[in-house]
Write a structure and sequence with these properties.
Layout (H helix, E strand, L loop, with lengths): L2 E4 L7 H10 L3 E6 L2 H9 L3 E4 L5 H8 L4 E4 L10 H19 L3 E5 L13 H12 L5 E7 L1 E2 L7 H7 L1 E4 L7 E4 L1 H13 L6 E6 L4 E2 L1 H11 L6 E4 L2 H10 L4 H16 L18 H14 L1
Parallel strand pairs: 1-2, 1-4, 2-3, 4-5, 5-6, 6-10, 7-9, 8-12
Antiparallel strand pairs: 9-11
Helix pairs in contact: 1-7, 3-4, 4-5, 8-11, 9-10
């Protein structure tokens, strides 16, 4: 039986990925920081493993005997030194994969990960890709999705408090956006059939690009506020708002840098949208099935 170790198994991508792999009859080692949050995956037949992703000994043990791994850097928005933390996780994942002699890895990367710097926290994903590609005998696929639909859930409080959507993206900037469920589905395809080799990048661009005024209109229609508007904020204001929401100063600054990269066009998909890079879920579907229920709750 194929064995896949899934890091970040309780997250928006890792959880549906682990469940889909189990549905396919694949043995899953679900890695996470909380036994309680891993319990639903254990109930689905996954092997729950609690530990720190920055611990190479934990990962070497968790990866030993696995045919493949799903590698990601879980978000820790309040960490006082997020770059050092992320680099520790990258080094531990690469070391664990090498010690365990894993043959295949699929990583959760991002649009903009082709750049080594000037892209905020995406720079860590550039490093993750590079380090995994250097592991001897490891075949890799790096998924580079666009902006997550689920990120819009963080705007519910702003909409309720101020009656509008607000953020640092300029109104005319259209971003590729995708549902995390579609990312999990793409990862499951690669991990469900390991008859591939080499090093690959797969962009996940969603069904189309959206500007934030368009996002406001779609989300507003789903929650009964069809005139919901969007206000673009300066990056200093964005960083301050993120710190008010619990981000560390370092993380808030990195997010502002990332937003500036999208606004200036430095961060973008590198291939035309095609059936191979598109994903089926539209923002309208997400707004109706996920955002509106969350807003109502």
């Amino acid at each position: 039986m194929t064995i896949v170790a899934v890091t970040g198994a309780t997250g928006n991508v890792g959880r549906p990925l682990a469940l889909e792999l189990r549905r396919r009859g694949i043995a899953v080692r679900a890695l996470g920081r909380s036994a309680e949050r891993l319990r639903p995956l254990a109930d689905a037949g996954a092997d729950p493993l609690v530990g720190d992703l920055a611990d190479p000994r934990f990962l070497a043990q968790a990866f030993r005997g696995a045919d493949a791994i799903f590698a990601m850097i879980p978000p820790e928005y309040g960490h006082p030194d997020p770059t050092s933390r992320a680099r520790g996780i990258v080094a531990a994942i690469a070391a664990g994969a090498q010690v365990a002699r894993v043959r295949h890895a699929v990583s959760l990367s991002s649009v903009g990960a082709d750049l080594p710097a000037g892209n905020g926290p995406i720079a860590w994903l550039h490093e993750l890709e590079r380090r995994l590609d250097q592991v001897p005998g490891l075949h890799t696929t790096h998924l580079r999705p666009g902006y997550f639909f689920e990120n819009h859930l963080g705007s519910i409080g702003v909409i309720k408090a101020f009656g509008k959507l607000a953020g640092g993206f300029q109104p005319g900037v259209a971003l590729p956006m995708t549902a995390t469920a579609d990312i999990a589905a793409a990862a499951a395809v690669r991990l469900g059939d390991l008859g591939w080799s080499g090093h690959h990048v797969q962009e996940l661009q969603g069904p189309r690009d959206y500007t934030f005024p368009q996002v406001a209109g779609i989300l507003g229609a789903a929650i009964g506020r069809p005139t919901l508007g969007y206000e673009a904020l300066g990056l200093d204001a964005v960083a301050a708002a993120l710190q008010g929401a619990g981000f560390s100063p370092g993380m808030a600054g990195l997010f502002a840098e990332m937003i500036d990269g999208f606004n200036t066009g430095r961060l973008a998909m590198r291939t035309p949208r095609s059936p191979a890079t598109s994903n089926p879920t539209s923002l309208e579907q997400f707004a109706a099935t996920v955002f509106a229920p969350a807003f109502g709750a």
